[in-house]
Amino acid sequence: MLRRPFFWIIALVIAAFALAPLIGEDVELRESLLLAAVYVTLASNLNLMLGYTGYINFGSIVFFGLGGYICVFLMSAHGWPLAAAALVAGAAVSLFALLFGHGILRLRGAYFALSTIGINEAVKAFVSNFEPWGGSSGLYLSTEIFTPLGGAMRALWIIYFLMVGVMGLSLYLSYGIKTSKFGLGLMAIGQNEDAAAMLGVPTPLYKAFAYSVSAFLPALAGGLYFFKSAFIQPVDAFDLGLSTEAMVIVMLGGQGTITGATVGAYLYEELRGRLLTSETFSNFQMVISGALLLVIVLFMPGGLMGWIYGRWPRLKRVLE
Amino acid sequence: MFGIVASIVDGVLIGSVYGLAAMGLTLIWGVMDVVNLTHGAAIVAGMFALYLLTSAAGLAPYAALPPILVGGFLVGVLLYWIAVHRMIGRPPLMSLLSTFSVNLVLIGLGTAVWGTVLFNVPVTLPGVSWQGYTFPGTHLLAAALTAAMAGLLYLFLYHTRLGKAVRAVADNREAAELAGIPTTRMLSLAFGLGVALASVAGMLIATLFPFTVLAGDAYQLKSFVVTVLGGLGNPAGALLGGIALGLIEGLAAPFMPVSWTLVIEFVLFVAVLIIFPGGIFAFKRS
Q: Residue A114 is nearest to which of B105, B265, B273, comparing CB atoms?
């Protein structure tokens, strides 16, 4: 693996993310890259289901939100340290996904897609009524929570590097799976599930596994994200809009490709930032992302990477 | 005791309107295997059409139904050609994404024009009192109009040549094509009908409750729940599913806060999908 160029390309991307805001301690750049790292994490994990396995997970944000809730809850109510709380959140959400995945992954196509929306909405409605988690008004962390990390200023930097770490793990996970036998099985399911099963791919196991694995890192990212804002409420945590953005990113970059998910996330974050700050377009941000997605779906379903592979087929050997 | 019965009756009245919206969604699914994610936008369009027709054009609220029905149909046919036609026969992901992106555009435009403030269309109708409980006239008329629309859809699908052709395309597109049915035209017709039903349902909902541009998502989710209860692709099931949902809401209302009914609905939604993917009221499974 170490001898493959793509391994080092990922390392370069991570290093660039980690180093860029350090030059001149650019806080504004750090914040926008933090958001980009969250997008890359969400998009590349969504890609495991959407791109590799061909299952549309509309509600992937439920992992992010539940991870955030468990992490914030463990810290605020039980005084756990960040690392332990985030890891337990990730593991718990993964387990939750494994249990649920077993049930809903028997469904295919549109039925599966609808059920993922249902799960997100069910969890959101439940958490909005769940008093130990603050119901619809949510949970707060006191500002003292940042003291063990050396004050709020330093904590923000630490969270940023941790988030870049989670992003890096997501990229290596996607890459590792893609080059493994497991990944080959997932791709086979994506192409033709019945044929894959016939050829001996244990499809129910593989699908449930992919669903569960794709939950872990988004849950960690959710923990870090909501620890950073020191506040979590159901509307933000289970916002279907964010999982939609992840889907736009995967489609924009090219489904099933790791480079696509990363470049797509970065481009989308840039575009979104520009639109939000521009006077003429700030009201039309949704219109423009919608129109963009429509054009991609109608005219270049392969996304950015599909177009690049079409022009320079040799790049297929280097970029995954 | 009678309070509970009244609450259930009222729930059923409102639920039938949800059923009407879901009929639009399920008709499109049944004919072309496309989950129409512009459904929420179509419902909201019906709401705002009612608002504009009553406040700007000065129409009586219920006189707005025919123009909304026709307008919804035309918009639906247009949407079919923009977003759906190229997706027919391709993996479900593509049509989900294309209708979804049109939804983003429409809701985005709506938000830019109207913002996210609450709108209200005042409708005054005398209610019907019975044993000390008053059933609002708007709820009764909405349910009656829903029944009329469902009856018309039934007449169209089962007693006209055109309706028969639509059903043939739903059954087997290739065989219908071989039999000389212009399938593409039937697909656009079905999509137009689906959107028209959704916008009429939106109009009726707007006579019951205040609404915002963003209300579409919640009603779209309700339509999903209803369609899943009734079986995807089954209009009669959708109406029954809507009534069942209204029954649950009406039954739960006296006993728990409204926010808990949402939990019940979505848990039911996922459970039904997993246990009975054909729907509880599935008369015929495709």
A: B273
